[in-house]
Structures are given as structure tokens and as C-alpha cells.
Design brief:
The protein is of the alpha+beta class. The chain has 1 helix and 11 strands. The radius of gyration is 22 Å and the shape is elongated. It binds dinuclear copper ion.
């Protein structure tokens, strides 16, 4: 009888130790293929000391690249985003292409599936669609120093006439 109890205790520990990694793997697969959540892609490299001369980042801002398609080219630095306001019409698909000029920053956009780490030297990219007019706050979510909390901006989705 005692042997059976020990066996059950072992089982009680072994089962979770198998179930937890299996559960994590399933969560990974479901979020990657079902919910479309991806590890922010490394969209290239850039010399952070030469952003002013580098295409994409020499003129940060919003560029129309097609009908209702925009590219937001963003440079993060202590402690601001350039640009810190992005205006697009409702129904737009926006590719956010961003990098950091100095240290590690973040880019978390509320109400959209966009959450990037902005590393100096790396280009981060994510795309979101904005169907309804409104405002979406984006902010730096990597602690980057004394004025980290002031580092934010917004995407303004305007109603179409
Ligand atoms: Cu930039 Cu926190």
C-alpha cells in the first residue's frame, strides 16, 4: 500500500513536469499560427550613428506607399519618438518601421497588435490595420532613464469624408 502512495506522489510530480512544457509549446503554436502573434522580425540593420544619412530614417514621418497603405518611419531616442504623432485615414494599413538612435527603447501601441523592442543598430517592423477613427497611444515600454515616462506619442485615425 505504501509503495502505491509513493508511486502516486511521483506521478503527481511527473505529470505537471510533462504537462507544463507541452502546454507552453501548444500556447506558442496557437499564438504564432492562430492569433498571428510573432516575435518582432529583425527587418535589417542600420548604423545608429548615421541615421541622418540613412534612407528610411533620414526623414522620419508617415509616407503613403499605396491606396490606404502607409509607412511610419520612426526614430526613438532619449526621450522622444520622432514623429510622436502619426495621422492616417480610417481603413489604413500602417507598417511601423522603427529603430533607436541611442539606447534600448520600446514601442507598444495600444489597441493594435504592435509591440516592438527598438535596439540601436536594428530595424524593427510591424504592421497594423486601423478600421475605426480614434486615437491610439504608443509608448516606450523599456525603462530608458529619468524621463522614460515622458516617451509617448499617438496614432490618430481620422474619419474619411
Ligand atoms: Cu524610451 Cu523608455
Amino acid at each position: 500500500m505504501r509503495g502505491t502512495t509513493i508511486y502516486l506522489f511521483e506521478l503527481a510530480w511527473i505529470l505537471p513536469s510533462v504537462a507544463i512544457p507541452v502546454g507552453m509549446l501548444v500556447a506558442l503554436i496557437v499564438t504564432a499560427y492562430g492569433a498571428g502573434i510573432q516575435v518582432p522580425g529583425d527587418a535589417g540593420r542600420v548604423d545608429p550613428t548615421r541615421l541622418a544619412e540613412t534612407a528610411l530614417f533620414n526623414e522620419p514621418g508617415v509616407v503613403e506607399v499605396g491606396p490606404l497603405r502607409y509607412e511610419a518611419r520612426i526614430v526613438a531616442g532619449v526621450w522622444f519618438f520622432t514623429p510622436n504623432e502619426i495621422r492616417v485615414p480610417a481603413g489604413s494599413t500602417v507598417s511601423f518601421i522603427a529603430t533607436s538612435r541611442d539606447i534600448v527603447h520600446g514601442f507598444s501601441l495600444h489597441g493594435a497588435n504592435v509591440n516592438l523592442m527598438l535596439l540601436p543598430g536594428r530595424i524593427a517592423r510591424a504592421t497594423a490595420r486601423f478600421d475605426r477613427p480614434g486615437e491610439h497611444l504608443f509608448l516606450c515600454h523599456e525603462y530608458c532613464g529619468i524621463a522614460h515616462h515622458t516617451m509617448f506619442g499617438k496614432v490618430v485615425v481620422e474619419a474619411r469624408p
